[in-house]
Amino acid sequence: MSGGNGSIKLFKVFGIRVGVDVSWFVILFLAIFWLSGVFKSVLSGDGTVAYLAAVATALLFFGSLLAHEFGHAIAARRAGIGVPRAIEGPQPAINAVALTGDSPVNPVFLVLTFLATMNAVILAFNLLPAWPLDGGRVARAVAWKLTGSRLRGTLISANLGKGLALLLGGLGLWQVLAGDLGGLWWILLAFFIGSAARQAVAQTQVTESLAGRNVIDVMDRHPVTLPASVDVVRADEEWFRRYGWSWFPVVDESGRFLGIAREQEVRPASERPGLGSPPLISEMIDPGSGQEWRVAETEPLESLLGSEALARHGALMAVDESGVLRGVITVEQVRAALKPSAM
Hints:
Elements: E1 8-13, E2 16-20, H1 22-42, H2 47-79, H3 94-98, H4 107-126, H5 134-147, H6 150-177, H7 183-210, H8 215-218, E3 226-227, H9 232-243, E4 247-251, E5 257-262, H10 263-271, H11 289-292, E6 294-296, H12 308-313, E7 315-319, E8 325-330, H13 331-338
Parallel strand pairs: 3-4, 6-7
Antiparallel strand pairs: 1-2, 4-5, 7-8
């Protein structure tokens, strides 16, 4: 399951976004294809029942994984942190299914037996001290405690994950070379574990590079602002046409950030003939932009890495405790802060 960018959103529960990577559909197809063959041999060649049982098993299996991940997500939400996720393949349960032999088997019993076996196997497998498994997270916490370094703790756990990936990949390759295509599951699982381990190291290095740095450390302290008391004609002439920008932050007489005014709204209003004085910029502010574009100047840079508002707008307005606009921080400035030369 995935909650990050690039995933396909399935639904949202209790404010928690549930999505899957494109590769999940490939895994689902392979799981159904593989289980159909296994179940067909167990169910005395009944292909239709075997296929339906395989579909039900695959969906219920991933549903159990989803329930497991929800436990992580809810706990992380309460603690104010994020929890990476992983999907384990169903290969280890093949021996349990094969134990049924040639005797008549109830499809419902077969599905429940497989699911129970798989969840037991995953429970044991998930306790291995290798990232990104739960046991790997425990190992990182212990290493972090002993070394006093989050990065070193992650490196130790990630290296264990890489070692496990090599072991599983080697096992899968040996099975494939021996004619057992079931080894492809081990290879696929090794790929996911290895990728997650490398990603954990990279993410931790990024976090470490931003440690102790806030928005105020990298923001532009001299933003061009648009007074709320200016009318749209003057704003169009002296701000939008002069600078060529598509939007400006609007501030009141005390410098407090009120929201964003856009060229697409201001220019038509300035060119529209009418009686009386032209409308003021305070009337042209985007609804909700006063909050959506706002960030505290003391906000840690690390928290902006997953900011949807920053990614969508390209910039945020940094304000102090009184709401006074103190600067502008852009995506480019955050990226520059990640480079070694900027540290």
